[in-house]
Write a structure and sequence with these properties.
The complex is a heterodimer. By secondary structure, chain A is an all-beta fold. Chain A is 0% helix and 53% strand. In chain A, strands 2, 4, 5, 6, 9, 10 and 11 form a seven-stranded mixed beta sheet that branches. Chain B is globular, with a radius of gyration of 13 Å. The relative contact order of chain B is 0.35. The chains are: A mainly beta, B mainly beta. At the A-B interface, β4, β5, β9 and β10 of A face β3 and β4 of B.
């Protein structure tokens, strides 16, 4: 099976712009989670989607949003970018059965200048 | 906040067993222990999970104490490719949608 893919792998944006990141989960996985990873804060949970519904959300401002499509592909959007949004954004997909282990993609490295 | 505590860093000689400890003193009866690792510049990789019995797979062994308040991940013959950050997390067993909270993990350096 193909793994989790994320596009683009690298991105440079300017403060105030918005950005959309994409994630394609492993075939058959309906759960997709997003994480932000920075040197200072580590891996932080953003949100989780299952069958096009957001089931859980982390403690991030409303500028961070996401969605999931009927084919389980997911996108996350960050509006009005700030310098502090520079991070590695990781997507993970999970199967629908226990132990619900997560399979991570390689991440999108976002740099905000 | 993470429900687990781990030492920030450890060294291990190549070919020796790497024993990575994790404390989870507030673990609930329905929570499992999961381990992941993250090799530099890659996404985290699932390693193993367990409830109360010792578990082993092709990557590692997991030893959970009888009171379930701590566990140890064992890499039996560490190689240079095992150099990574190792994360221990706990999460409920019956749902797939609980938040997965990662702590800072343990940075393992395998020394030649």
């Amino acid at each position: 099976k193909a793994g989790v893919t994320q596009t683009p792998r690298y991105l440079i944006k300017t403060r105030g712009q918005q950005v959309t990141l994409s994630c394609s989960p492993i075939s058959g996985h309906r759960s997709v989670s997003w994480y932000q990873q920075t040197p200072g804060q580590g891996l932080q949970f953003l949100f989780e989607y299952f069958s096009e519904t957001q089931r859980n959300k982390g403690n991030f401002p409303g500028r961070f949003s996401g969605r999931q499509f009927s084919n389980s592909r997911s996108e996350m959007n960050v509006s009005t970018l700030e310098l502090g949004d520079s991070a590695l954004y990781l997507c993970a997909s999970s199967p629908d059965r226990f132990p619900y282990e997560q399979y991570f993609g390689p991440g999108t490295r976002l740099t905000v200048t | 906040d993470a429900k687990t505590t781990q030492p920030p860093s450890m060294d291990c000689a190549e070919g020796r067993a790497a024993n990575l400890p994790c404390n989870h003193s507030t673990i609930s009866g329905n929570e499992y222990v999961y381990w992941y690792r993250q090799i530099h510049s890659q996404g985290p990789q699932y390693i193993i999970h367990g409830l109360k019995n010792n578990e082993t797979n092709e990557m590692a062994s997991l030893i959970i104490t009888e009171d379930r308040k701590s566990s140890t991940l064992i890499l039996p013959h560490a190689t240079l490719r095992d150099t990574a950050v190792y994360y221990c997390i706990v999460r409920a067993s019956k749902t797939s949608y609980d938040k997965v909270i990662f702590g800072p993990g343990t940075s393992l350096s395998v020394i030649p």
